[in-house]
Design goal:
Layout: E1 2-7, H1 10-20, E2 28-32, H2 37-40, E3 42-43, H3 51-60, E4 63-68, H4 71-75, H5 78-84, E5 89-90, H6 94-101, H7 103-113, E6 120-123, H8 126-135, E7 141-145, E8 154-157, H9 160-172, E9 183-187, E10 192-200, E11 205-207, E12 212-213, E13 216-218, E14 222-225, E15 230-233, H10 240-260, E16 267-276, E17 279-286, H11 294-300, H12 305-313, E18 330-336, H13 353-357, E19 362-366, E20 369-372, E21 375-378, E22 382-389, H14 393-406, H15 421-424
Parallel strand pairs: 1-2, 1-4, 2-3, 4-5
Antiparallel strand pairs: 6-9, 7-8, 7-9, 10-11, 10-16, 12-15, 13-14, 15-18, 16-17, 18-22, 19-22, 20-21
Helix pairs in contact: 1-11, 6-7, 7-10, 8-9
Bound molecules: adenosine monophosphate (AMP) and glycine.
Adenosine monophosphate binds at residues 118, 142, 151, 154, 156, 186, 188-189, 193, 215, 272, 283-284.
Length: 427
Amino acid sequence: MNVLIIGNGGREHALAWKLKQSPLVKRLFVAPGNAGTALVAENVDISPTDFPRLIKFAKQNDIGLTVVGPEAPLTLGIVDAFNAEKLRIFGPSKAAAELEGSKVFCKNLLRHADVPTGDYRVFRNADSAITFLKDREDVPVVVKADGLAAGKGVIVCAGRAEALDAVDRIARQREFGAAGDQLVIEERLDGEEASVLAITDGQTIVTLPATQDHKRAHDGDTGPNTGGMGAYCPAPLVDDEMLHRIEEHVLVPTVHAMKRSRRPFQGVLYAGLMLTNQGAKVLEYNVRFGDPECQPLLLRLKTDLMEVLLATTERRLDELPPLEWDPRPAVCVVMASEGYPGKYARHKPIRGLDEAARLPDVQVFHAGTTVRDGQVVTDGGRVLAVTALGTTIPAAKLNAYTAVKAIRWDGAWCRKDISDKALWKSR
Ligand code: AMP
Ligand code: GLY
């Protein structure tokens, strides 16, 4: 079967690398892809949100399955558009993708389904939010723009003064545009964060091992927020018992509630969780694989991913044997451009990729790369997702950083402490 992957990040390179190994996959395309996906698949220069061209391409190239990486095409309805043309596609419908596309929808659904999450209130304008903040105790809160804001519409506030400023930015200055038409004010939760992803066909839920992302730019979880500077899997913080409880109290009721509200969910359901001392609470849902969580997950997955994706779209996940995993943990270190997550330069030649690729148990997934004059160059903020297996988390970390050391470009940097959080628990 011919397969089309949509997106151009490290997640999509990992998906392409994994699907390339499936005997069920004939030709593999990535739209638009990067210099890494070009090594395992054929890049197609079409934007992830240009549905008419993607559909035309899928028809002309006999694509049997399309796999969507990022959230934007999902929330814009790519799955509905493909289904209307009888084209098979992996991912949630537009209505189901609201779970990520609207924080108000997500919080209301969690409340109705009785899924543990922070207390919250929804506001349609700045005045009512300001009155609310002034009338209540001065406590830490999180102010969130309702819509997608490239991960920036969430403002964690120490107290009232910061919260009033956040409301002003979202609802008056409209820093995030229409995403700020509504806002959520939520209690601030304390604890460690973890991500639990599951693949579901709307009935059966296949929970993947827990992972941890590193969203802040600098070591020790300091500095500005980023798309994710590294991840590892499994996260020992979430033991089997906790994972089971998360499945039972978070994932199952969410999938049922989506079905009841006539938005059956099919695809990857990604729960961003805060592990509080009252148990795991949902911070947010994403409706796709996380980037970079996808990279260590897929490096460990032994089962043919194509079989899992096909079973999901055919609603027969219940027939699949349990997924097989490499018992070794995996650590993924993101190498970024100088200046990221702020402004950064592009087109810096990258050296040492071949040397890194020769190291055992290492996969260098490309994120922001392209080819210029036959040379792989940087083309984004997050440039590479260097991912490695090891017998323990520290061993996987060492393998990943050994590969990082082999790779060079002008201004390259990374966090030095990816996966150290895994060891905090035992301190
Ligand atoms: P979100 O876009 O909802 O994932 O939020 C981004 C980040 O904001 C999360 O990964 C958390 O670090 C933080 N965050 C969101 N909601 C809360 C909350 N209720 N309490 C504390 N931190 C939060
Ligand atoms: N790693 C966080 C995300 O994919 O949204």
